[in-house]
Amino acid sequence: MHILIIDGQGGKIGKLLIEGVREKLPKAEITAIGTNSIATSNMLKANPDYAATGANSVIVAARTADVIAGPIGIVIADSLIGEITADMAVAVGRSKAKKVLIPLNKCDNIVAGVMPLSMNELVVNAMEQIETCGMDCEK
Description:
The chain is built from six helices and five strands. With about 140 residues, the chain is α/β, with parallel strands linked by helices. It has a five-stranded parallel sheet, sandwiched between helices. β1 (about 1-5), α1 and β2 (about 30-35) form a beta-alpha-beta unit. The longest helix has 20 residues, at about 120-139.
């Protein structure tokens, strides 16, 4: 199973996701893509199989991923303070991969019905969803 983790800003969510995938799905192939070099650098600390930075990397990797995970902003153009380009959002949205989106109510994107959880609580829930996707892919 190929899991694509996309993050921006400082890459904290992406790093936590990679650590969780490594623990729960050790056989998964993980690609980490940061929207900037700082995010990529921080995600590299969690030891993904592959890593890259930038819009074209997201576009290419989204084509072959089984699961794409990251903050909800990865499907909204101009989110993450402008780090997500329209092409990136379209690539993620059009990908046949299952998407596990962490609903952060930041940067003018509010998700109705989402309880105010800590980032750690959100990542734990996202990991449960990714693990479920992993079981589906193995069938």
